[in-house]
Automatic annotation (TrEMBL):
Keywords: Oxidoreductase. InterPro entries: Hstdl_DH. GO terms for molecular function: metal ion binding; NAD binding; oxidoreductase activity, acting on the CH-OH group of donors, NAD or NADP as acceptor. It holds the Pfam family Histidinol_dh. It comes from marine sediment metagenome. Gene3D superfamilies: 1.20.5.1300. This is Histidinol dehydrogenase.
Length: 58
């Protein structure tokens, strides 16, 4: 029977993705992101967006 290749270094590496957003983009999608987080019971994510929006307004 055939088998797939063995393990490689990539199997043990943690991949991390970073996303950046302009202040204008945050103002545009922030309120929707807050509502989405609340609707999915992701309170900490919603609070994070709220804090970032408040920081923009300070």
């Amino acid at each position: 029977a055939r088998f797939s290749s063995g393990l490689s270094v990539l199997d043990f590496m943690k991949r991390t993705t970073l996303a950046q957003m302009t202040p204008a983009a945050l103002r545009a999608i922030g309120p929707a992101a807050e509502r989405l987080a609340q609707s999915e019971s992701l309170e900490a994510h919603g609070l994070s967006v709220t804090a970032r929006l408040r920081k923009l307004n300070d």
